[in-house]
Design goal:
Blueprint (H helix, E strand, L loop, with lengths): L4 H4 L1 H16 L4 H16 L4 H9 L3 H8 L14 H10 L11 H12 L2 H9 L3 H6 L5
Length: 141
């Protein structure tokens, strides 16, 4: 059995994603973009059940999937979805001392994700999730 192309290309694909995210967020480094990505992923994940989290993770490219589930506390309380401004503020509060997220960070991350993920897989995963999850990944501010 051959290694799936998603895994063979995981490193270069992730690097392209991070460079695109850095540009979309108008940041100076991919390290800064990484902090925003972690905040966005944690903010979203906090609103899903474990089954929903895994369903969404399966739709992501391999290294984004690993990033999405890293440090996951699946025993924590599930937060409700809120309006985009409140969710952006939550991302901005993630690691507040070295977070460079600004209003619109979720929409920017969503737009980048849509450019790099398999659209059909992502749409199928989101179709199984609550409306708030679909709204979260809208790239409209």
């Amino acid at each position: 059995m051959t290694v799936p192309i998603d895994y063979r290309q995981a490193g270069p694909d992730f690097d392209r994603f991070m460079l695109d995210l850095r540009e979309t967020l108008d940041l100076q480094t991919t390290h800064q973009a990484w902090g925003v990505l972690l905040g966005v992923f944690e903010t979203f994940r906090r609103r899903l059940t474990p089954a929903e989290t895994l369903a969404f993770a399966k739709a992501l490219p391999p290294l984004l999937r690993a990033t999405f589930v890293q440090d996951w506390n699946f025993d924590g309380p599930q937060a409700p979805f809120a309006d985009r401004d409140a969710l952006d503020r939550e991302v901005m509060a993630y690691h507040r001392d070295h977070q460079l997220a600004e209003p619109g960070c979720i929409a920017a991350t969503a737009a980048t994700l849509w450019r790099h993920a398999d659209r059909q897989r992502l749409e199928a995963a989101l179709a199984r999730l609550p409306q708030g999850a679909r709204d979260f990944w809208s790239d409209q501010a």
